[in-house]
Design a protein that fits this description.
Number of strands of chain A: 11
Low-confidence stretches of chain A: 242-252
Largest sheet of chain A: 8 strands, mixed
Number of domains of chain A: 1
Mean pLDDT of chain A: 93
CATH superfamily of chain A: PAC-like subunit
Strand content of chain A: 15-25%
Radius of gyration of chain A: 18 Å
Structural class of chain A: alpha/beta
Largest interface: A-B, 26 and 34 residues
Number of helices of chain A: 6
Strand order of the largest sheet of chain A: 1-3-6-7-2-8-11-9
Shape of chain A: globular
Helix content of chain A: 25-40%
Distance between the termini of chain A: 40 Å
Oligomer: homotetramer
CATH class of chain A: Alpha Beta
Chain lengths: 252, 252, 252, 252
């Protein structure tokens, strides 16, 4: 079989689309943010990606029906603004080769759809609970920094120290070097200890600003509050009455 | 060499055949069940599959003759019913790529033989000894649930939680997405601590019902009883006279 | 680059040649035996095999000159008997794929040279020091058992239990299934704790018998005695005056 | 995508160029030495190499701009002497296959540029701090030993015992066997516990001698002194007032 099989069942005509990639990763921040956009913008599925670079696995839904693990692409036509493509998925490629190949082939498809700007979404692990997560940025071209800063993204020098590992980094890197695509990575701060809607909410806010989207954030706020209550409860349990909250360490 | 070499030495003409896959896995339930069918139905071997995705190994029989590890396909023509294909083997593909490729190429061969329905057999690990193992099901299409339920298969919501990993899952997933084949996975409950004929017996019973097979189950019942006696003995040894049997934990 | 590069710098014309494979493995028995034949029969090098399946490494000789790791083929024309090919090397293929591919390509070359019989040499780990190592056999065809037994090879039922893993097994398995070549594996018993000339000596003796070779065994006998003295010394040191020698366990 | 993508954006015409390879490795000696040459000789970048054999990662510079990990080639035209090519990079190929493939394709490019001599730079781990690191050599041809010895390289018998593993070895090995290129490996002694400019300085000195380069060594001397001060401090801290310096063991 082909190492990557893209089953594209719709051929949307798009106007200057931007691609947003949100695959599983640190705190699942990117995945939660991207799936939230898909849901709230009622985006339309148009391609499934199967691959040997994904685990050999099916999931089972509540009716007993299996679903082969995959990445999926959605689109949304937006009047007067750039149209939107969103990449979500069950897994990132599980090997080094898989990381490169999957990013490359998705970028090839993006080029055919005339994408010229890519946003990759991810988490930035702080190792502790953060009250209000910042969104850190990285870009393919310095000229992009200003617009992102204006939208609330921060570019602290020397962070993230090790650069960006995985899909969120490789899509920008390959996009820049091999596809002449501009791109930015938006990393929501997260403790990294659990799937974290708080970091995701901040990332979605930035995207709403940048791309003039109309997205109701209330569900994500609700989920963030629930997580906050759980983590506060856990902190109290762990630390007794000590109220110091900024250095929880691993508790899960 | 080709990564997978299928040596098909017979070309059976089959009437609406179903493919049953039973490779080694949890409790070897699928393998035991599939090999039992091959033996009791006196099925005919028609293809051997060698591969770089299998361990680099030969087995040695009692006469000193080596046998390269492989997967093997058998067939049986059955009057008035669907003909039968059974896949058995020494190993599943040992890598992620191997899992996908081997499943894909076996499905390709199955399509040439006009297979339109695939059953994959496996074990479902309960982590404890079960008196009467249930057979859990998963399907490629909700319309298949009723016939399976009528034959005794159960579809408990949220089980198996992580989906199905390995050949039993991938063959259904690829069959559905790339070959338009319907399929079902039958998972016999097993402690998972040893090769388990009890779970296999329940799986064979379901297949006998579903496919109107005539299979003498007495040998499998005999082997199940032997295993039961051994595990009861072990429980007594481990737990003294305590007769509580439903939570043995790991003893082997 | 090609995954395997065979640099064949001579084209020997051979009469009904047999191929003997002796790569590193358990106790290095096969490698020691094969290299001994190459040396004592003054065999001629005719092909080097480089590969991505071997470690990315060069060795350095006493003059400071590097040598890329490799497998090497030697030949010897023998009047009135089968000509001889011997395969030796620094390493076996290091991955499952490498095991299959390297064996396959060497067999392809062997077929071009009209080889119809393959002997693979290896060690059989006993886990203890053996006074007089046996040579265990495995064959591609039951008809080969008698001649081997007559030459002193033993075929104990159920040994080796797990079959033969690695080059010594795969070359026979692929030779049989894909090249219609007959073959036998000769496994010299060895503790498995160190490079073992004793097991190798017994393997060479068998080959001398089987193939009517003229090989002076005195050097190998000398090296075996040296090893015996070292291990006896170690046993005394380890066990005090206890002279029981048959169950040393791991001491190295 | 191609497994290795070489983006060559300049086509220098070179006179009998030599290639110097200095990728990350033991004590980063080779990388530090090669990057020092690039900087001090104001060498010109002419090709970037991206690959699936490198980690799926981007680095981020102080302006927030990402850079896909890579290897890079520089050149320098030198009047009256051999022109110079230098290979530097963020990583070596991370797999065995990657080690071979990347070395092979770089050698292919080198051949097109008419390179006939390759120097690979590396570290030789002594496991302790050395006052004045030696530079050990290994060559593809014995005739090269004299010129290297005259330049201060040493060829101690039996060192390095295990040969040379990784890019520094494979480039010589493949260069010799498949490209008829001569080559030498220069290994600066280093404790191996940290990035070590002292070993690198000695390697650069040798190259300056061998290739009649004009390179100001003062920066590297400065960095070596700093490292020396730090390690002396650490030794004092670790060992109290004990001044014995030649066997630090792992402290970092």
């Amino acid at each position: 079989m082909e190492k990557i099989i893209i089953n594209q069942y719709k051929r949307p005509r798009l106007a200057s689309p931007v691609l947003i990639g949100g695959l599983p990763g640190i705190g699942n921040v990117g995945k939660i943010a991207a799936e939230y956009l898909v849901e709230k913008l009622k985006m339309e599925k148009f391609a499934d990606i199967y691959s040997q670079y994904l685990p050999p696995q099916v999931f089972i839904d509540d009716t007993g029906v299996v679903k082969l693990v995959r990445n999926t692409l959605y689109y949304k036509k937006l009047k007067g603004r750039s149209d939107l493509l969103v990449l979500v998925g069950d897994f990132q490629g599980t090997t080094q080769e898989g990381q490169y190949e999957m990013s490359y082939q998705i970028l090839e498809l993006a080029r055919k759809l005339e994408v010229s700007m890519v946003y990759t979404l991810g988490g930035y692990s702080t190792g502790k609970i953060v009250e209000i997560p910042r969104v850190l940025g990285a870009v393919t071209d310095e000229s992009l920094v200003k617009a992102l800063t204006d939208s609330g993204v921060v570019f602290p020098k020397g962070e993230p120290g090790g650069g960006i590992v995985g899909s969120a980094g490789v899509m920008l890197g390959l996009g820049k070097e091999l596809f002449s695509m501009q791109g930015a990575c938006l990393m929501g701060e997260t403790s990294g200890y659990f799937a974290d809607p708080k970091g995701a909410k901040e990332v979605v806010k930035i995207l709403v600003n940048l791309l003039s989207l109309e997205v109701d954030l209330s569900d994500l706020e609700e989920r963030s509050k629930q997580i906050e209550q759980i983590t506060e409860k856990m902190q109290e349990d762990v630390q007794g009455k000590v109220t110091q909250k900024d250095d929880l360490g691993y508790f899960g």
